[in-house]
Amino acid sequence: NAGGTISGGSTGIFVDSGSTVGSISNAGTIIGGSGPAINIQGTVTSGITNTGTINGAVELGGATLNLNGAAGSISGAVTGGAGSVVNVNGTFTTADTFAVDTFSIASTGRLNLGHDITPATSFNNAGTLAVAAADHWRLERLAMVDRNILRLGIYELLQPKIPAPAAIDQA
Asked: What's the predicted TM-score (pTM) here?
């Protein structure tokens, strides 16, 4: 999909449990109808690459989702099963929650975090993680990952050997 639109009455793209596809690449718009925009129950051997717009939820199954470029967006929740991976390789701002096996931010990636990310196995950050302001929120409302990042940042700010700009940048 290079600049066009894919939409369905129920699901924009569906890979059923008996199917295998090489890859899915979106530079346009994928729209889900009454169901998710993308529903992967089969196998996508080389993953899904998004630089466009996905209007609706994404159900990854065990697939990989690569968020590349600076203009890609997903308006719905992203869920995945065992083996599911989300890689942020460009600039991406969450518009809903992510619940996948592994979530990674590449050294070239920037994630503007505004919603919960719940990785079952691991969260890897080699890039930039920017946490949105949480005005009038109790600490208990923040996701566990967000609370731990804040705790680590505060701890580092209190250490005399760590320069404040470095502590803020790393958090």
From this structure: 0.77
